[in-house]
Amino acid sequence: MKHNDSAIATVGIAVSTPAAGDPDTATTAAEEPGTPKAAVKGPGLPKPTTTAHVGRGLLLAVLGVAAFSLTFPATAWGLEGMGPWTVVMLRSVLATVPAGAALLALRVRPPGRRHWAGIAVVAGGVVLGFPLLTTLALETSTTSHAAVVVGLLPLATAACSAVRTGARPSRTFWIASLVGAVVVIGFAVQQSGGMPNRSDLLLFVALLVCAAGYTEGGRLARHMPGWQVIGWALVLALPVTVAGAALALSAEPLELTARSVAGVLWLAVGSQFLGMVAWYRGMAVIGIARASQLQLAQPLLTLLWSVLLLGERLPPAAPATALAVLACIAVTQRARG
């Protein structure tokens, strides 16, 4: 359930200019071992931050949120013909194909040793942890109930960013973020009956690991293009995902249908790769905390896709919730950090 291209390709492969005063971004493009030589010079280099540059970053973050909003419906489709472990492992293995091909074709050198710990966090959080935990939860949870995770994720990511990077968003930012989170959580819980169960625990843990993965990915995207961040994370997790896929395929029932295949393909290409490319690049440009608040709109987009793709009925409170969430997003985007 819990997902142009030219814009992603152009901006994603360009090397980010280090943020002034940020010790984590002091490495120049020429020094960065994870940067292909072709990206160090030439027209691909990003220009100094301007309104247009920020707008482009905002657009990429929005595209990432749109891609992620299709994740839960696509997962539901995948579960119609495959077991949960098969869905999770196959999506990661398949996503590694375009990511690895791009890394090989552009002869990208492996990242420096100091970046691998962060890449491991990305792999554990967004390649393995979040997909697995949410997929297991979706065996018994509805899309509206799982939207609780997405409602909390922006706040959790902003908090994680404040701890990890030292970012200090304004009080207005935090108030608007909290209000938006409460609105979305209240809506989702009300729709699901508000009864905590096993799926709630899985979703809560998924929230924490995903927030950590987003934060590290956004930080790393200041050192290397966003597509390389998720690309190396997928490559790092490949031994686990290949072995996991083999075991899952031998242990779980498999009934391939058009919807199950389409669901897994979208999870691999849209959610796991292209969505992450746009998302990490967008976070690198406009900031982790600011970008994370755009995800307040993700549960509502997921509900829309659930109606169109899964045949679920749109709750009556959805329009009012949408307006409240959009108002909160507008405040967080205008608040000065």
Automatic annotation (TrEMBL):
Pfam family, one: EamA
GO cellular component: membrane
Residue ranges annotated for the EamA domain, each copy included: 56-185, 200-331
Transmembrane feature ranges: 57-79, 85-106, 118-138, 144-163, 172-189, 201-217, 229-251, 263-282
This protein's UniProt keywords: Membrane, Transmembrane, Transmembrane helix
Subcellular location: Membrane
Annotated Low complexity bias: 18-39
Region (Disordered), start-end ranges: 18-47
UniProt cross-references to InterPro entries, sorted A to Z: AA-Vitamin_Transporters (IPR050638), EamA_dom (IPR000620), EmrE-like (IPR037185)
Membrane topology: Multi-pass membrane protein
Family recorded in the similarity comment: Belongs to the EamA transporter family.
Protein name: DMT family transporter
Organism field: Streptomyces sioyaensis
